[in-house]
Amino acid sequence: MKKWTGPTKQGLQWLALIAVFILAIIYWSSIVGAVGILWSVLFPIILGGMIAFVLNIPMRWFEKHLFPKSDNKYLKASRRPLAIILALLVIILAITAVVIIVIPQLASAVMTLVEVVPTLVENIQNWFNQQEALVPMLNQLTDQMNVNWSSVVSSVASGVNSIASGVAATSIAVLTTSVSAVTNIFLALMFAIYILASKEKLGKQITRSMAVYLPNDIENLLLNVLAVANETFSKFISGMVTEAVILGVLVTAGLLILQIPYAAMLGVLQGVLALIPILGAFMAGAIGVVILLALNPTYAFVYIIFVLIIQQVEGDLIYPRVVGDSIGLPSMWVLFAVTVGAGLMGIPGMLLGVPFLASIYKILKLDVRYRETLEANSANQEDTDHVKFLDSFRHHLLTNDEIDCL
């Protein structure tokens, strides 16, 4: 049997790749539909894996500090179940606290906003009319733009009313899909608990299967990628959550001291949205300004100044020490990751885009350094260790407690 080698083999590979690309374009709608069906079927499993990854962070801490010196076999056997239960309780209590603090005050603020916005727009119009120096210029400008202020005010008022009615319609739609959502969350939680309960066994099964079915170089490459991604995501999540808690407490305490309304809600909102790099701070600030502006412009002004000061402290002191180099991305690439993630997946994409791109960035840096080291053939011990980096990753993954299978 004739074997294709050299340029002929490479040319055939390119032709096959081009053919696959053309077929993908032709049958794109069918592919998207099939992927959508597959996603809906696998969604509880994927969500369970994500929940297990997040729960694994507090679970490891509890497991490390529960009965560390005990030789009792029953206590040792109960360490993992207790750690899972405590990790679940921590997450559930955190979510419950956020909902209890934010939702009632946010609903009250929105209702106040709905009542105040039409009057606020009318007051702004009256204020402009009272500025004698601005009236001729504004009249000339509005004449050129053909602006009808009364229609603008009525449009804003009708828009606010339509939003309020839309909330009711959305609530009905949410209720109709709640059963499916609850079912998916329940299945995902069960799957996550099973993963955490037997993660070592699952990890060994995966690595053994990779060793049997994959070539050694591909196996090492995959283990390298998994370990780097696991380390980056774990450090990013733990660092960002810690920073969000610190920021939320600081903002809440400061607003209470300044006697700003909705202090607890704005502080929690600031902390939660801080999980979204760069854009989260602007989103929280904008929401706070809109809410406080409807109550009293002075509150909004004080809030802006206070948040700017807090953001400066957070950027210079808190973020570098708490999150540190866990991201390892230049600011430009952080903004790129947030923007692209938001466009692809919305808020989940904004949360996951940064650690995902940071993992790729770190892997590419390691690969570039690895190739440069091979070319230079340096005798430096650091470079020599790096040459062995990929080959040792399987052992590293199986023995390092800080980078386990989850």
Automatic annotation (TrEMBL):
Q: What parts of the sequence cross the membrane?
A: 12-31, 37-62, 82-103, 172-197, 244-265, 271-293, 300-319, 331-361
Pfam families xrefs: AI-2E_transport
Its domain of life reads Bacteria
Q: How does it sit in the membrane?
A: Multi-pass membrane protein
Which residues does UniProt call coiled coil?
none
Q: Which UniProt keywords apply?
A: Cell membrane, Membrane, Transmembrane, Transmembrane helix, Transport
Coarse class of the protein's main subcellular location: membrane
Instruction: Name where it's found.
Output: Cell membrane
Q: Looking at the keywords, is DNA-binding present?
A: no
Output the InterPro entries linked to this UniProt entry: AI-2E-like
Cellular component terms (Gene Ontology): plasma membrane
Query: What biological processes does GO assign it?
Result: transmembrane transport
User: What does the sequence similarity comment in the record state about its family?
Assistant: Belongs to the autoinducer-2 exporter (AI-2E) (TC 2.A.86) family.
The name on file for this protein is: AI-2E family transporter
